[in-house]
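Appendix B, Record 12. Input sequence as logged:
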Amino acid sequence: MNALNAVHLVDDGLALGNKEPNVGRLLRDAGKLTSADAERVVLLQKTEKLRFGEAAIKLGLINEADLQQALSHQFDYPHLSPGEGQFSPDLIAVYEPFGHQAEQLRALRSQLMMRWFSNGHKTLTIAGINAGDGASYLAANLAVMFSQLGERTLLIDADLRRPRQHVLFNLGNRPGLSELLAGRVKMSEANRVPALPAFPNLSVLTAGAVPPNPAELLSHTATPIKLKGLAEHYDVILIDTSAAHGSADAAVVAARTGAALLVLRQNHTQLAAAAAFQANLASAGAVMLGAVLNQF
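Logged structural output:
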């Protein structure tokens, strides 16, 4: 059973409890239905034995996106309608959380919870072999999905060469990780990374200014201490890194976190390069939890 069907099973327009607004009320509050519209929906609902949302859609009063937005409020599952929030459309966990790709991401999230985060670990590196393999895309969408699960989630952009997360989330890029590692931002300030208003369980620490010495900053002996300090305030920390090919940044960061999830691009990533990255992780005492094949 997929997530969309599971949600629809309880979409009957009835309140789930004294403090839970029903679907009809949520749609009225959002300006999608008038009281007269709601009466028409209830009549059709009873006549044809439909769920409230199905009846409203059949009457042409709302669309599927309107219904899913209402359900997200009913079940405290934050997501946005297309165009809201000014985030990148690449954030499918934000804008299309009930689609096929989102279901695949949920399956991956479940595997990571069972194999890594449920075992007392908090931080995980997301790495690609080449720039453009989709590591930043995967890290961003997984971070949103962990936050939707209720986990206090921090996404760190540790790609100090070609940072991307501030673009995906439409954020300012300074101060960020580079300023923290260089000692220009105090740890107490870094611990107060604000949550995104639309996603109260998600915070994003951007890369900051692109430094001339990213490898040295990431390799600094104080880096593990600073990551440990951040971990005290979150349940899940995902770290986006530079491409593994051409720099040691990804392996260095993975050694700090203990594990990496590798992103491979179909018909593009060379298996020899992936094997070499896995060997580098092993020599650094880290593990590769698995690989994700990106098809585009």
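The first strand starts at residue 123 and ends at 128.
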